[in-house]
TrEMBL record:
Its cofactor is Ca(2+). It comes from Sphenostylis stenocarpa. Keywords: Calcium, Cell wall, Glycoprotein, Lyase, Metal-binding, Secreted, Signal. Belongs to the polysaccharide lyase 1 family. Its EC number is 4.2.2.2. It is found in: Secreted, Cell wall. It catalyses: Eliminative cleavage of (1->4)-alpha-D-galacturonan to give oligosaccharides with 4-deoxy-alpha-D-galact-4-enuronosyl groups at their non-reducing ends. This is Pectate lyase. Residues 1-24 form the signal peptide. Residues 168-365 form the Pectate lyase domain. Pathway: Glycan metabolism; pectin degradation; 2-dehydro-3-deoxy-D-gluconate from pectin: step 2/5.
Length: 443
C-alpha cells in the first residue's frame, strides 16, 4: 500500500493544485485559502506512515494488554446489542479508555486525554497546554463575528484551546462550524447535543480532538459570508448535512461521540485527509454512515490512513461502516450488530484490514455479506487487499477476502500478540458513545 516515494510525491502535487472548491463549500478560493490548503497538505505528508503495519501492530499489542487486565474485573453476562445501562463500578475495557476513564480526578486533569489516542490519529493532541475556554452560550447567531462564550467563538481562536462546557446544552448551528487547528472540544461533565442545524467541519486544518458530544438530526444549511479562521472571512456554499466532515486535514481524533439520523453522512473523510482515529463512537438510525474518500478519480486519497476502533454500529444503520477509497483502513474490534445492506464497502483499490470485529448479519439472506465492492469486476477487485483476521461472524455473516496477505507484523515471536478475537468486541466497545461523566467521579 505504501508505494514508492515518487508516486506519493505525485499524489501530493496533484492534491495541491486540484482542490475542487464546490466540494469544499468554498464560494471563492482566494489566496488565503490556497495557502491554507498547501500548509495542510505539507502536514499530511509528514503524517503519512510509509509502513502502516507498524501502527496496526502497536495498537493490537495495547488492545491485548488492556483487555487482559480488564477481564479480571468484569464478567460478561449479557449481549450488548441493546446497550443496556450499566450501574456498577467504572470499567475501562479498551486501551484508550483505560488511559483516563476510571480516574476520579479527570476533570482536574483534562489534558490527560490528549495522551490517550491510539492508531493513525496518534499525533492528535488538540488544545494540549493551551488555555481552557468554557462555552456558556448555546446560541449561534453571528457567523462573521461570533459572540464570546459561544462554541463558534472558541473553535476559531488562533492559539491552542481546550474547549469545555459550563452546563448541559443543545446547540443548533445555523452555519457549518469550521474548526481551527489545535483545538479540543471536550464535552465531558455536561450533556452537549449538536442538533437540528449544521454540523462540524475540519477543512485544511491539523491537530483536533472531538470528544463526548451527541450529534443528531444535522441538516443541509444555506451558506453565505462565514468566518472560517481567526483572520479570514469567506463565502461558503450550502453545506451537505454531514455530522462531521474532514476535508484536507490531518491528525484528527473523534472519540466517544453519539451520532444518528443526519441528512447526509455521519462522518466523511475526504480530499487527502490522513492520520485519523475514530474510536468509542455509537452510531444509530442512519443510511450512509461513514465515507472515506469521495471520488473514484481523486487518487490524492492514497495517503489516507484511518483507524476505526471500539465503535458500536447499532440499530437502524444501512450501509457504509465505512465505505473506503484508495487508502489504508484499519477496522479493529468494532461491534456490528445492525446493517440492512452491508457493513464494509469500497472502490478504487483501498486496503482494508479487519481485525477482531463482531459481525451479526441481518435476517435477510440477501444481506449476509459483510463486504461490498463497487465499480469493478472481480478480475480487478480480487487484487484489492481486504483481509479478515480473528473476526467473529454470526447469523450467517460472511466476509469475502481478496488480495494477498498484508504482511507479517514486525515483532519478535515473544512480543507478537494477536489482537483480541471478535468474541471480545462487545466488551471492548461496551461504553461507546458520549459518556455521562460527573465531575469528581470516574466516568
Amino acid at each position: 500500500m505504501a508505494g514508492s516515494s515518487s508516486k506519493v510525491a505525485l499524489i501530493l502535487v496533484a492534491f495541491a493544485i486540484t482542490i475542487p472548491c464546490l466540494e469544499a463549500g468554498i464560494g471563492e478560493f482566494d489566496d488565503f485559502l490556497k495557502a491554507q490548503s498547501e500548509e495542510a497538505h505539507e502536514i499530511a505528508l509528514e503524517s503519512y506512515v510509509p509502513d502502516p503495519e507498524n501502527v496496526t501492530s502497536d495498537l493490537n499489542l495495547q488492545v491485548h494488554s488492556a483487555l487482559g487486565e480488564a477481564l479480571k474485573e468484569e464478567s460478561n453476562h449479557t449481549r450488548r446489542e441493546l446497550k443496556q445501562k450499566y450501574s456498577g463500578p467504572c470499567l475501562a475495557l479498551n486501551p484508550i479508555d483505560r488511559c483516563w476513564r476510571c480516574k476520579k480526578n479527570w476533570a482536574k486533569d483534562r489534558f490527560k486525554l490528549a495522551h490517550c489516542v491510539k492508531g493513525f490519529g496518534r499525533r492528535a493532541v488538540g488544545g494540549l497546554n493551551g488555555k481552557i475556554y468554557i462555552v456558556t452560550d448555546p446560541s449561534d447567531n453571528e457567523p462573521v463575528n461570533p459572540k464570546p462564550g459561544t462554541l463558534r467563538y472558541g473553535v476559531l481562536k488562533k492559539d491552542p484551546l481546550w474547549i469545555t462546557f459550563k452546563h448541559s446544552m443543545v446547540i443548533k448551528l445555523n452555519y457549518e462550524l469550521l474548526i481551527a487547528s489545535d483545538k479540543t472540544i471536550d464535552g465531558r461533565g455536561a450533556n452537549v447535543v449538536i442538533k437540528g442545524g449544521a454540523g462540524l467541519t475540519m477543512q485544511f486544518v491539523n491537530n483536533i480532538i472531538i470528544h463526548g458530544l451527541r450529534i443528531q438530526k444535522i441538516k443541509s444549511m444555506d451558506g453565505g459570508m462565514l468566518r472560517d479562521s481567526w483572520n479570514h472571512v469567506g463565502v461558503r456554499t450550502r453545506c451537505d448535512g454531514d455530522a462531521i466532515s474532514i476535508f484536507g486535514s490531518s491528525n484528527i481524533w473523534i472519540d466517544h461521540i453519539s451520532l444518528s439520523d443526519c441528512e447526509d453522512g455521519l462522518i466523511d473523510i475526504i480530499q487527502g485527509s490522513t492520520g485519523i482515529t475514530i474510536s468509542n463512537c455509537h452510531m444509530t438510525k442512519h443510511n450512509d454512515v461513514m465515507l472515506f474518500g469521495a471520488s473514484d478519480t481523486y487518487n490524492g486519497d492514497k495517503i489516507m490512513q484511518v483507524t476505526v476502533a471500539f465503535n458500536h454500529f447499532g440499530q437502524g444503520l444501512i450501509q457504509r461502516m465505512p465505505r473506503c477509497r484508495w487508502g489504508f483502513f484499519h477496522v479493529l474490534n468494532n461491534d456490528y450488530t445492525h446493517w440492512l445492506m452491508y457493513a464494509i464497502g469500497g472502490s478504487s483499490g483501498p486496503t482494508i484490514l479487519s481485525q477482531g470485529n463482531r459481525f451479526i448479519a441481518p435476517n435477510n439472506d440477501a444481506a449476509k455479506e459483510v463486504t461490498h465492492r463497487d465499480y469493478a469486476q472481480p478480475s480487478v477487485w480480487s487484487k484489492w487487499q481486504w483481509r479478515s483476521q480473528n473476526d467473529l461472524f454470526m447469523n450467517g455473516a460472511t466476509f469475502i477476502e481478496s488480495g494477498k496477505p498484508i504482511g507479517k507484523l514486525p515483532f519478535n515471536k515473544g512480543f507478537l500478540m494477536k489482537p483480541r478475537h471478535g468474541s471480545q468486541a462487545n466488551r471492548l466497545s461496551r461504553f461507546s458513545g458520549a459518556l455521562n461523566c460527573i465531575v469528581g467521579k470516574p466516568c
